[in-house]
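ok here's 5-hydroxytryptamine receptor 3A-like, seq below lol
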Amino acid sequence: MGEFKGLLIPSLCFLFGVAAVLSELACKDSHSGPTYESLQSVFDKKPFRPATNLSNPTITNISFTLYAVLGVNEKSQILTTFLWLRLYWHHEFLQWDPEKCGGITKISLPVEELWMPDIIVYEFIDEDKSQRCPYIYVNHTGQIRYDRMLRVLSSCNLEIFNFPFDVQKCSLTFGSYMHTIRDVRVSLALPIEQISENSKKYLETSGEWELVKIQGETDILKFGIDEWDIITFWVTIKRRSVLYVVNLIIPSSFLMLVDIMSFYLPPHSVDRASFKMTLILGYTVFLLIMNDLLPSTANGTPLIGIYFSVCLALMVISLLETVIITNVLHHNAMKYRPVPRLVRVLVLGYLARLICYTRPPSQPETPSNNITTADPEKMKNVEVSMVSLPPLASPELQQICRDLGMVRAHIDSLRLQQDLEEEWIHVGYVLDYLLFRVYLVLITLYALVITCMWCIWYNL
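and the structure came out like this:
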């Protein structure tokens, strides 16, 4: 092993010493450009970094143009982009004098025959299947330009809470894979502002995402005692939300508007409860259909999912309110129970004035109307008093009087039942108006908060 090292080190020193002496490629008068033999000697040095002094690092200049945003997979946290990548570096073995080479200042050479810096994207999580350019351009000073198309599947921490008004910021880190900072250094070939402007100019996709800006910074990656020179580009993209507003938010708002307008149906009608149940069923079907459009991750739920859940909960609350009001209007009235004094004072008194509920004017009070608020047991006394007759009356007259008394008692009983029903109806209407206003205030506040949050995020 020691003999091998002893032979290798002098050979490398001799090789780079010859390269330092022969700094220019040979040309012939009958040929334009460097000769094939001189280029072949450079090709033979492909395994070695093209530097006459290995203590000097090879500086690689990097620039790219974001040509397309192909997709964002929120569940897998993957960003798919298409880049036009351009690399520049200096090859100290590829230099010639244009005056001696027929005025040729630039030639193209095959990529496989020359040393290249192993610049990669650190966020790469899949094999690059894009087409590779087979040639590079070299000018007479040894400056090399390499262009290639790059389909990047990179990992990105995607935040979907603001969906569909979310803005994603993903990083693309370029650097050498094997060469440390002593061998390969990276720098920007163009200013960051120009890279961002070129990407906005040539971005061809007009789908779901639009480019906001590109930022970049150089840094040093440390791992143990080794250091790597890297450049990190921060690509900020914003989702175009018109599709989701039209397909999700507007239909949901229409269904909520129909649910609000359903409060104007008569509360004592059974159709109101069935209408709300049908509306909830339709909203559930809508949620199942739009579930495929919503992004899903294990980290959290988007705000629009919470928005739909709250809307469904509000619809269920409105249905429960209808059930309660229906019970007040029908169940208590059918039992001929008078309205308790506490309910009459609290609901028909204070709450009715609070919500500005105006009770319809009552009919002029008659003697028969005096018993409407009495206990139903008093009806028996009324019935007995009406059938009491003088003992000298004929049997036919007594039978007629008894029949008339029974008719009068039945009529008064119906009036009592009607008055009880009307009073319970007023209680139900007051509660219905109160709960409707509370429900409307809750929906309005909720809609304002959601709208303000989305407007702030959309304008960021």
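fwiw The mean pLDDT is 78. kinda neat tbh
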